[in-house]
């Protein structure tokens, strides 16, 4: 029998459009002889709309923007009504999807879902918490400072002084809880620092400022649950000043080199760090680990992405393709890992008997 698979995509997030692109790509790779695919669209306003099972791959993103009946708006209750999917494939990026919120819902519903759980998703989404955990694990990383909106409103000048004391220009200013390089700026002086913080605060209440360094950007993909495997390494070579949102999704000028040309011992060191990062966050399913490699082959972990870009041209699937796992096989594997983890959780006892 076909397995009933729910695709959850869209979301109340600045990365809504990225999620739609991912969902379209996944529908084109799924074997509809193995799965009954139920589209579950979350609008930018937060409505949940469940569509009819797919009869074929989706080629037009507009098709994925399901509409609720005007006379009876659908909310999350429409998702709960009727047959629950046997397993869910979340294809949400950014806040309200990648940060543990929707994972918590799936946990309460006791339904298997692909990817990371509540803790790993929330810790991996918050760059400050993530870096603090990496520090506890002894993972080398760049220097940084952080603060929240209320602190900035009360003492912006003092915070900029602190950043300039601990760090040197250039610096990178980022919303702490967002992905796809949304709201990120590279700054060279105090004036641009202030402007960058104001921009980042439009997307999050917590800001992180990181030390800019001259280094190669290398990424690895991790797949598994308790016994994760690591892909070959891939290098990002953006033509732009840094790998911003436009470089990722619009101008198509960024060069990807897979496998990356790095010494074997450096590659092994990165694999070890990727697995340590995966385990310290208690990850499951998938992670993309991003590194800086300096001219002296020093390896610094930048961050992990607990729900990385997942179109066939995204780095995570490309890394596994070069490692020997095709895009459709990768999706099947993630579904298998979701069921494996859910089955293990059912062994837990919830009474004192």
Helix and strand arrangement:
Blueprint: E1 3-10, H1 16-29, E2 35-42, E3 48-50, H2 61-64, H3 76-80, E4 87-90, H4 101-109, H5 118-125, H6 127-136, E5 144-148, H7 149-166, E6 171-175, E7 185-187, H8 190-200, E8 206-211, E9 216-224, E10 229-237, H9 245-249, E11 255-257, H10 264-280, E12 285-293, E13 299-305, H11 315-323, H12 327-345
Parallel strand pairs: 1-2, 1-4
Antiparallel strand pairs: 2-3, 5-8, 6-7, 6-8, 9-10, 9-12, 10-11, 12-13
Please tag this protein with its features.
single chain, about 350 residues, Rossmann fold, Dna Ligase, domain 1, D-amino Acid Aminotransferase, Chain A, domain 1, five-stranded antiparallel beta sheet, four-stranded mixed beta sheet, 12 helices, about 35% helix
Fold and architecture overview:
By secondary structure, the chain is α+β, with helices and mostly antiparallel strands. The protein has three domains: 3-113, Rossmann fold (3-Layer(aba) Sandwich), CATH 3.40.50; 143-211, ATP-grasp fold, A domain (Dna Ligase, domain 1); 214-344, ATP-grasp fold, B domain (D-amino Acid Aminotransferase, Chain A, domain 1), CATH 3.30.470. It is 37% helix and 22% strand. The chain contains twelve helices and 13 strands. The chain has helices at residues 16-29, 61-64, 76-80, 101-109, 118-125, 127-136, 149-166, 190-200, 245-249, 264-280, 315-323, 327-345; strands at residues 3-10, 35-42, 48-50, 87-90, 144-148, 171-175, 185-187, 206-211, 216-224, 229-237, 255-257, 285-293, 299-305. A five-stranded antiparallel sheet has the order 11-10-9-12-13. Strands 3-2-1-4 form a four-stranded mixed sheet. Strands 5-8-6-7 form a four-stranded antiparallel sheet, covered by helices on one side. A hairpin with a 5-residue loop joins β2 and β3 (48-50). The mean pLDDT is 91.
